[in-house]
Write a structure and sequence with these properties.
Strand order of the largest sheet: 1-2
Shape: globular
Largest sheet: 2 strands, parallel
Number of helices: 4
Order of helices and strands: HHEHEH
Distance between the termini: 22 Å
Radius of gyration: 13 Å
Helix content: 55-70%
Number of domains: 1
Number of strands: 2
Structural class: alpha+beta
């Protein structure tokens, strides 16, 4: 679990410093399967870092709830 937290911290740091924007030449897309707690958290991290995030789940209700929660964050 420490590795994921460390990766998230690096993504947030790079986003805050603008290094993602300097290095990226093409828009990046992230797909997240399963918008539970962890999926939502990663969606927020990547969206704040400037990535386009696509959520996927078999349950439309789960997706609606996750999208509403992410928009509030």
């Amino acid at each position: 679990m420490g590795g994921m937290c460390e990766l998230a911290a690096r993504i947030i740091d790079a986003s805050a410093s603008g290094s993602f924007r300097r290095r990226r030449q093409h828009p990046k897309q992230i797909a997240i399967i399963g918008p539970g707690r962890i999926g939502r958290a990663w969606a927020i991290v990547f969206a704040r870092a400037g990535f386009s995030v696509n959520l996927h789940d078999a349950s439309k209700d789960m997706l609606r709830g996750a999208i509403a929660s992410i928009r509030k964050a």
